[in-house]
Every structure is written in structure tokens, then in C-alpha cells.
């Protein structure tokens, strides 16, 4: 049995190839992928060959936001059967290292994460028609939930982990910088958590419109109306919380300027070095917190998507068949018209 795969060789060198499907072992399932979202990290690999110190050093199958239908199950697999529709958790921690034993599995020293060039040999990803996965990676979804929606559970899990890092959100005034997939899903998660005000900033009107659909009470295009943030910096700042999702220095500076004394900023955007106005950070006693991936939040995200407690459909800008992967990546990189672009596969 063979499967098509979406393999990156070098920047802008993406090829649809065929390879044998791995043999199914005990505890594993064969999943026929139906939808896969193109993530910011996939775009960095495609356009730049990596991000920060992480570089593509060998051909890599991209993709870690995937969902599909179980084709077959191996021995000792319980509670899953052919025909079950599932979101696939891309994280495979070892459960044995010091951080796994401390309950910090997102920091596993031996983490295997779909489509990641962090390790060498690289961890191959989920952009393929058929993938063998471990049964614990599978979270079932109901008949009313599309595979496209289920594939959004992974970025939503990132946002849920960020909210857990931030602490209580109910009744808080929140700033979100960056209206990409993480920014708009964070807005939705803050809405569900009871935030009293959610202001989202970005450079593009199209993504800010999606942010409003996902719960933002106000949006600001910082190119055209940067002064609209000035009132939020009065009296040392008014926001209780900020989620920095853009990885842009000016965005982090605006968060530090507008968050109140002893407020909290959660950094989700990933980049290289960022300038920080340290005097203001110190003078206002702001808590600057990092947030990395997720753990138990993946299952929570699937449940929220499955019952549409968070309706992720507004963020899905377009879908392309696997054979049009180059066009899909080009669309995904155009923030004037895209939030989340997905690939579709030969399901069924």
C-alpha cells in the first residue's frame, strides 16, 4: 500500500511524492487524512527553510494540524474502530524524561512532533493521504463536525494553553496583538472564558474582520489608526492581559505600553531576537510569560470544536487538494486574504 506525501526539499521546493505505508503494529491505527491546516511553522519551512536556529536539513513531510478517518486498527487498540473520525494530536512525548515525570510533557526532552525539523532525523508530518499513528493521538469527533473543523483543534490547543498560563480571564480587559490563526482563536477562547473586553490589533483588515467574527469587541489596524491605542496607555495602561501573537517588536512594545501595572503579557509569537523596553517592563512590574504548545489542552480543544462551543469555521479561508499544495502555500502566506488555509486529501 502506498500514500501520497507533501515533502519539502528546500525553500519553495515542495513535491508530491509516493511512498509505502508503514506496517501497522500493536497499539497503532491507520488514519486516512481528510484535512490538514497550513501552520506558520510550515510557512517558515516553505519560504525560509526554517525559523530561528531550527533549519530543514533533510527532506521533510510537512503538516501537524490534521484530522481524518480510521481505516484500520492494530492489536490491543481499544475504544477506536474503522470508520471513527478523529483529530490527531501531533505530540508524542516519551513519558519518561524529567519533564514528562513533572507533568510538563510539552517540554519533553525526547518529544516527537509531526512535521518538525527540531530533531534530526526530522519528525515527518501529517500531510499525506494515509498515516500510521499511535492510538493515544486520536480524539474522536461527532458526525456533525467536519474534518476541516477538527484539524483546527491543534492551534486552538495552543491558545488554551496560553490562557492557562495567563490565569483567570473572566472579567478581564484583554489585548491581542496579531490576528493570525493563533490571535483570532485566542480571541474566541477569551470570549468563552468571559473576558469583558477584547481588543485585537493587526496590519490587515481582512484578518481583523475574522477576529471580530471570533469575538473581538474592537479591532485596530495599526497601520491606519495606530493612535486608536493611545487611550489604552493612559494612567500607566488599562489592559489586564495581553497575548502577543505576532512576534513583532512594535507589537510587544505596544502591549507593554498599554498593560496596567502588574498586568500580564503572554508571548506566543515565535521569532528570533525581539527588542524589549525593559525600563517600562520593570517600572510597571509586568509579568512577561512564555507559552509553548500544549498538553492536555488538545483533548479539551477537540471537545470545544466538536460541540461548537468555539465555532472555528470563520477562520478557514480556503481549502486546496493536495496536488495544488504550491497554490495553497502561496495563499496561506498572503495575509491580505487568508487566516487559515487547509489541504484536503483523498479521504474515502
Account of the 3D structure:
With 348 residues, the chain is α/β, with parallel strands linked by helices. The chain folds into 2 domains: 2-152 and 312-344, Medium-chain alcohol dehydrogenases, catalytic domain (Quinone Oxidoreductase, Chain A, domain 1, Alpha-Beta Complex); 156-290, NAD(P)-binding Rossmann-like Domain (Rossmann fold, 3-Layer(aba) Sandwich). 25% of the residues lie in helices and 30% in strands. It has helices at 40-48, 98-101, 147-150, 153-166, 181-192, 205-213, 249-258, 278-283, 297-306, 325-332, and strands spanning 2-10, 13-20, 28-37, 50-51, 54-55, 60-61, 65-73, 85-88, 91-92, 112-113, 130-134, 138-140, 173-177, 197-202, 218-221, 239-244, 259-267, 287-290, 316-321, 340-344. Strands 3, 7, 8, 11, 12, 19 and 20 form a 7-stranded mixed sheet that branches. Helix 4 crosses helix 5 (181-192), helix 4 packs across helix 9 and helix 5 packs parallel to helix 6 (205-213). 46% of the residues are buried. The mean pLDDT is 96.
Give a quick set of tags describing it.
single chain, Quinone Oxidoreductase, Chain A, domain 1, Rossmann fold, 2 domains, seven-stranded mixed beta sheet, six-stranded parallel beta sheet, 20 strands, globular
Largest sheet: 7 strands, mixed
Kindly report the average pLDDT value: 96
The percent range for strand residues is 25-35%
User: Secondary-structure element sequence?
Assistant: EEEHEEEEEEHEEEHHEHEHEEHEHEHEHE
Q: What structural category characterises the helix and strand content?
A: alpha/beta
The radius of gyration over CA amounts to 20 Å
- CATH architectural arrangement of the largest domain: Alpha-Beta Complex
Overall structural domain count: 2
Please mark out the parts with pLDDT under 50 across 5 or more consecutive residues, or reply none: none
Q: Distance between termini?
A: 15 Å
Amino acid at each position: 500500500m502506498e500514500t501520497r506525501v507533501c515533502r519539502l526539499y528546500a525553500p519553495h521546493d515542495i513535491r508530491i511524492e509516493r511512498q509505502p505505508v508503514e506496517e501497522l503494529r500493536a497499539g497503532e491505527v491507520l488514519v486516512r487524512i481528510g484535512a490538514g491546516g497550513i501552520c506558520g511553522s510550515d510557512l517558515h519551512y516553505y519560504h525560509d527553510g526554517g525559523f530561528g536556529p531550527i533549519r530543514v536539513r533533510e527532506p521533510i513531510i510537512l503538516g501537524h494540524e490534521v484530522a481524518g478517518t480510521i481505516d484500520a486498527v492494530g492489536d490491543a487498540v481499544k475504544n477506536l474502530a474503522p470508520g471513527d473520525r478523529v483529530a490527531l494530536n501531533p505530540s508524542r512525548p516519551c513519558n519518561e524524561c524529567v519533564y514528562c515525570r513533572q507533568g510538563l510533557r510539552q517540554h519533553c526532552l525526547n518529544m516527537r512532533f509531526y512535521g518538525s525539523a527540531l530533531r534530526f532525523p526530522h519528525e515527518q508530518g501529517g500531510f499525506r493521504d494515509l498515516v500510521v499513528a499511535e492510538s493515544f493521538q486520536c480524539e474522536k469527533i461527532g458526525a456533525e463536525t467536519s474534518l476541516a473543523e477538527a484539524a483546527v483543534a491543534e492551534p486552538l490547543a495552543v491558545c488554551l494553553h496560553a490562557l492557562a498560563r495567563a490565569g483567570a480571564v473572566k472579567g478581564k480587559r484583554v489585548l491581542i496583538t496579531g490576528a493570525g490563526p493563533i490571535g483570532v482563536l485566542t480571541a474566541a477562547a477569551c470570549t468563552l472564558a468571559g473576558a469583558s473586553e477584547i481588543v485585537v490589533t493587526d496590519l490587515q483588515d481582512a484578518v481583523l474582520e475574522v477576529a471580530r467574527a471570533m469575538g473581538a469587541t474592537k479591532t485596530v489596524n495599526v497601520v491606519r489608526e495606530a493612535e486608536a491605542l493611545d487611550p489604552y496607555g493612559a494612567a500607566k495602561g488599562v489592559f489586564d492581559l495581553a497575548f502577543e501573537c505576532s512576534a513583532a517588536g512594535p507589537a510587544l512594545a505596544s502591549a507593554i505600553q498599554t498593560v496596567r501595572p502588574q498586568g500580564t503579557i503572554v508571548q506566543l509569537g515565535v521569532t528570533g531576537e525581539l527588542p524589549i523596553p525593559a525600563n517600562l517592563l520593570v517600572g510597571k512590574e509586568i509579568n512577561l510569560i512564555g507559552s509553548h504548545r500544549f498538553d492536555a489542552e488538545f483533548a479539551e480543544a477537540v471537545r470545544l470544536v466538536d460541540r461548537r462551543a468555539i465555532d472555528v469555521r470563520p477562520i478557514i479561508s480556503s481549502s486546496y487538494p493536495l496536488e495544488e499544495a504550491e497554490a495553497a502555500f502561496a495563499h496561506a502566506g498572503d495575509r491580505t486574504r487568508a487566516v487559515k488555509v487547509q489541504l484536503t486529501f483523498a479521504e474515502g
